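Lecture 7 notes: from sequence to structure.

We start with a single chain of 169 residues. Read the sequence below before looking at the structure.
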Amino acid sequence: MPTLNTMSGTRFGRGRPQKYGRAARAVTVRLPEDVLERLESLDEDIGRAIVQLVEGQWTSQMRRSDRPAAIASYGNRGVILVKPARVLKRLPGVELVPVGSGRALISLDRPLLIPNLELAVRDSIEGTDITTLERQALKAIAEILRQARSSRTMSVKERTIIVLESKRR
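Now the structure, written as tokens:
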């Protein structure tokens, strides 16, 4: 049987690496479909979603939802979710895409690059025609972008999303 170095969590020998960094066992559970969908929204791996719930990460994510801007993680990726604000909609090249629960993704028109977005956000913070809540949202977005830009463990990538738009107004 492989041995485990309990100090570093590394495994010696053959076999599958430990999924949660500690001993685990397979279990079979029957859950309602709606519960499974909610667990999958937290993590596509149901086991990891359950562990996160039990370890209290769900409650901290729920508390973060009060923030004007926050990172929503999914696996090793994340997106910036914002509370829609007029000031964000006025930024050139920025489109907010609703995702539910009063939150939106920031979508960029092709010519707008992430550094330009960060600069536009920082410039808008200085504006006099914005509310305190809008200023807080801009500061939160600017801080997320700054941390990501200067991080050694994270990178910022542009991705294309599909937006369906009604032809009628």
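The first strand starts at residue 3 and ends at 5. Keep this in mind for problem set 3.
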